[in-house]
Design brief:
The structure is a single chain. The chain is α+β, with helices and mostly antiparallel strands. It has three helices and two strands. A two-stranded parallel ribbon has the order 1-2. Helix 2 (about 35-50) links the parallel strand 1 (about 25-30) and strand 2 (about 55-60). It is globular.
Length: about 70
C-alpha cells in the first residue's frame, strides 16, 4: 500500500513538532544514493511549511568492515 505525499508530509510535520522546530531554524537531511525521492521531497516540504531551512547532506557509502578499524 503506497503512502500519499500529503500523508508523508503530515507525518514529517509531526516529527518536526516533536523536535520543536521553529521558523528560521536549520534542518540537515542526511541522504545517500539510495534515499527514497518521495521521502526526501516530503521531508523538505514539511520543513519549509515550518518556515525553517532545509539542507541536504549526501553521504558516500561506507564499507562497514573497513570503517570499524
Amino acid at each position: 500500500m503506497s503512502v500519499s505525499d500529503y500523508e508523508l508530509v503530515q507525518s514529517w510535520s509531526q516529527v518536526l513538532d516533536l523536535c520543536k522546530l521553529g521558523a528560521g531554524q536549520t534542518v540537515t537531511l542526511l541522504t545517500s544514493a539510495d534515499t527514497n525521492a518521495q521521502t526526501l521531497r516530503c521531508a523538505i516540504l514539511a520543513v519549509r511549511q515550518k518556515r525553517a531551512i532545509a539542507n541536504r547532506l549526501d553521504l558516500q557509502p561506507v564499507n562497514g568492515g573497513v570503517s570499524s578499524r
